[in-house]
Design a protein that fits this description.
The structure holds 2 protein chains of 2 kinds. Chain A is mainly β. In chain A, about 0% of the residues lie in helices and about 50% in strands. Chain A contains no helices and 11 strands. In chain A, the strands form 2 sheets. In chain A, strands 2, 4, 5, 6, 9, 10 and 11 form a 7-stranded mixed β-sheet that branches. In chain A, strand 4 and strand 5 form a beta hairpin. Chain A is globular, with a radius of gyration of 13 Å. Chain B is an all-beta fold. Chain B is built from no helices and 11 strands. In chain B, the strands form 2 sheets. In chain B, strands 2, 4, 5, 9, 10 and 11 form a 6-stranded mixed β-sheet that branches. Classes of the chains: A mainly beta, B mainly beta. At the A-B interface, strand 4, strand 5, strand 9 and strand 10 of A face strand 4, strand 5, strand 9 and strand 10 of B.
Chain lengths: ~110, ~110
């Protein structure tokens, strides 16, 4: 069964450093998303992406965040200057259609900012 | 604002039936989904309701009442492996971009 993959599984970084989280969505999917989950809390929407542009973003997704689909398979989330409060699990998800009832989530990248 | 309310914890025994309720207040409602998450794992899709009524998928069923902004997930014949967190999530947004707004999650503990 096709699945969303994410790398790395864990990332430790120093405050102020840049990190890039990578995702490979399901190959025929057209809509891509990033969510984050701070330990013990709910999953929070960050951004949705379609046709090589952001279709919607949340208040969390400020200027330090950016997304890119550099080629036909990867979807990346960059955090330019990490803060302590960016420590969380970051999930990538994809769906075939917008508002598709099923979004498939990747296993996540656990980011720890020290 | 947008908010979803669900109980924080539910405990039940193997073989029992449990219902997890979710009430929501969001803009641009398109549908209500349920996701399961085991410790440290990815949310896994369980069910989706766009219209009022009951959807059944094996041991799991989900219900939606749009007029009441209410839904529930029903788990039957509980098994130990059903111990997990369950999140309701609303597909929301101004242009149906697929944005999911999640509730805080309900931790289900299944006891022998």
């Amino acid at each position: 069964e096709p699945e969303v993959t994410q790398t790395p599984s864990h990332q430790v970084t120093q405050m102020g450093q840049e990190v890039i989280l990578r995702c490979v969505p399901i190959s025929n999917h057209l809509y891509f998303y990033w969510y984050r989950q701070i330990l013990g809390q709910k999953v929070e929407f960050l951004v949705s992406f379609y046709n090589n542009e952001i279709s919607e973003k949340s208040e969390i997704f400020d200027d330090q965040f950016s997304v890119e689909r550099p080629d036909g398979s990867n979807f990346t989330l960059k955090i330019r200057s990490t803060k302590l409060e960016d420590s969380a699990m970051y999930f990538c998800a994809s769906s075939l259609y917008s508002g598709e009832e099923t979004q498939y989530f990747g296993p996540g990248t656990r980011l720890l900012v020290l | 604002g947008q908010s979803l309310e669900q109980p924080s914890e539910v405990t039940a025994v193997e073989g029992a039936i449990v219902q997890i309720n979710c009430t929501y207040q969001t803009s641009g409602f398109y549908g209500l989904s349920w996701y399961q998450q085991h410790d440290g794992g990815a949310p896994t899709f369980l069910s989706y309701n766009a219209l009022d009524g009951l959807e059944e998928t094996g041991r799991f069923s989900s219900f939606l009442s749009r007029s009441d902004s209410y839904g529930y997930l029903l788990l039957q014949e509980l098994q130990m492996k059903d111990s997990a967190s369950y999140f309701c999530a609303v597909t929301s947004g101004s242009g149906n971009t697929g944005k999911l707004i999640f509730g805080q999650g309900t931790t289900l503990q299944v006891k022998p």
